[in-house]
Specification:
Order of helices and strands: HHHHHHH
Pfam family, one: YdjM
Keywords: Membrane, Transmembrane, Transmembrane helix
Number of strands: 0
Strand content: under 5%
Helix content: 55-70%
Bound molecules: zinc ion
Protein name: Metal-dependent hydrolase
């Protein structure tokens, strides 16, 4: 899938996850007042999910992440190839380690700017860690819907996808990709709208 699709799928799924288990605190639709801390939690969480949803394509120098990481990305693509290590369970383990490190950086930067309370919340809830990991999982899932599938158990080169028959999957960048991404966003949007109506 293309970077934009990954970002939209990741962030939309992130909304579903947050409304199911309230990672960032009270949902905005239910909060009587919207304290600044809650907005900061949500910003940190969605940044993490967005980052995670693009991260596996670090192995493709021409992707959104590839452009950001330049040389590193070229080197990874050269050594491992696109849709290999970073689109597998092993890649998820590496992504988790990276997420733990990045979480510490975020906490440090927040402390530095005098945001002690949100920093404590991030440290206690592991918002950054869960956000990045969830984004990565959604990326691999979204790519599994495409014709190429994903090498889930890399270094084994066998590729997996959903539906299992590759002829029922679509080629990255063709029209079904947009249909799937937009249908998913519309379904979640209707879900949120109904939830607001019920409240
Ligand atoms: Zn990918």
């Amino acid at each position: 899938m293309q970077g934009k699709s990954h970002l939209l799928v990741g962030l939309t799924a992130g909304i579903v996850l947050d409304s199911a288990i309230h990672l960032t605190g009270d949902p905005l639709t239910m909060a009587k007042t919207v304290p600044l801390a809650l907005l900061i939690h949500k910003a940190v969480y969605y940044w993490s999910v967005g980052f995670g949803s693009l991260l596996p394509d670090i192995d493709n120098a021409r992707s959104t992440m590839g452009h950001k990481f330049g040389k590193i990305s070229k080197e990874i693509q050269h050594l491992a190839g696109h849709r290999t290590l970073f689109h597998s369970l092993l890649g998820l383990a590496i992504g988790s380690l990276l997420a733990i490190g990045l979480e510490q950086v975020v906490i440090y930067l927040m402390d530095l700017r005098g945001l002690e309370f949100p920093a404590l919340f991030v440290a206690g809830s592991h918002l950054v860690f869960f956000g990045i990991l969830f984004g990565c999982i959604m990326h691999i899932f979204a790519d599994s819907l495409t014709l190429g599938g994903v090498p889930l158990f890399w270094p084994s080169h066998k590729r997996y996808g959903f539906p299992p028959n590759p002829h029922m999957r679509f080629r990255t960048g063709t029209w079904p990709e947009g249909v799937i991404v937009w249908s998913f966003m519309i379904v979640v949007g209707i879900g949120i709208w109904l939830a607001v109506l019920v409240v």
